[in-house]
Amino acid sequence: MLGILSIACLVVTIQALPTDVGSNKLYNIHEKIIEEGYPVETHDVVTEDGYILELIRIPYGKKGKDAIVRPPVLLMHGLSDSAAAYISLGPDSLAYNLVEEGADVWLGNARGVANSRRHIKLNPDDEKEKFEFFDFTFEEIGMIDLPAMIDYILEKTGEKQVHYIGHSQGGTVFLILNSMRPEYNDKISSAHLLAGVGYQNHFPSSELRIAAISTDLLYSLGVSLGFVEVLGPNWGNQITELQTLNACASTEDDGGVCSRSSLDDIIKDILNPSELLPGSALKQFAHYGQNIRDKKFRRWSYGLIRNLSKYGSITPPEYDLSKITVDITMHYTVNDMLLDEQDVLEMAAVIPNASVRRIPRESFTHTDFVTADDAKELVVDYIVDRLSTFVK
User: Fold this and answer.
1) Nearest to 175 by CA among 148, 149, 151, 139
2) Is there a catalytic annotation at residue 119?
3) Pairwise CA distance, residues 242 & 170, whole Å
4) Splitting the chain (392 residues) into consecutive groups of 10 residues, what average pLDDT does each group show?
5) Catalytic-role residue among 88, 93, 168, 205
6) What is the pTM of this model?
7) Annotated catalytic, 366?
8) Cα 244 to Cα 353: distance, rounded to the nearest angstrom
9) Could you state, in order of their start, the residue ranges of all structural domains in the chain?
10) What superfamily in CATH does domain 1-392 come from?
């Protein structure tokens, strides 16, 4: 059972990664955008707790500056992904199509990914400081990173509102921000959530549901072995840590996933450790695991005693989605191993101004929103058409 942590992290990570994300060239997002012929700016946003986030701006299209007032649009990536997701399809990418239609495009990189793997005091590569650096879940991204980015964009543009687009965890953090800090509802004009993960009452993957049963134990074990970062620039070193977990599992003949599979072969098949990859905190995966296990969309659980001290109850509070007033379109697909259709519909029923849109291809997957050849036809064109009405 212990080795399931390794498999769970890898499965979720691969579900979230765009197909070209292993390329170092793509990771230098600034240069990639220039190669495509677009102007680009790179901004550093410092959060209240000291993380330095890379925020990338494409202010206008290939034809140059124009007289139109371009509404700002913030795009946020999924778990173990980066802003590269929104330019990975080249000319068909959402970022480029939005800017050509008249948007002022801003691409966010959450704390922990390679482009935002920085802090004013903490060194993520230090064997001691890494524990504090990676001690965050998606809640901190929603509660701290997103507000910092939104406020920075509004200050730079002089606008009063941004439009928001989030894929997977990019949807999760949006739901958290606007339910926990409802004043930000007034700063967001509209939102498109692409397989935005929130409710997980009907979680579709049986393998990950099994892994989630032991989330807290597995997370504690990972931290005790120094495994606090998933992927990232030091992925080669992390393989050794994952192999240690696998060795622990192989001593237990419990019929678990890892006792029947070679972690080395899995890594070799799906990842190249010599290439630069996005990063994330193990605690982000564990937080999703808690919610899958408990069938609740709620805050991080510290355990009964610490929950009582921190929250005033033995269980963590749930995120109250009824407080979200932004005009939201929730895009989903029925072939998604990380988000069930019923959970999307139940979220939309609670959020006052939410509508749902089912992608018209039955085989469309969780990652296809940012990787599929027909993503422009099935996702991009719809969003661009909706947002084009806001261009002044």
Assistant:
1) 139
2) no
3) 26
4) 46 44 54 94 97 97 84 95 92 96 96 94 95 98 98 97 97 98 98 97 89 90 89 60 49 42 41 55 95 96 95 97 98 95 98 97 94 95 89 58
5) 168
6) 0.86
7) yes
8) 48
9) 1-392
10) Alpha/Beta hydrolase fold, catalytic domain (3.40.50.1820)
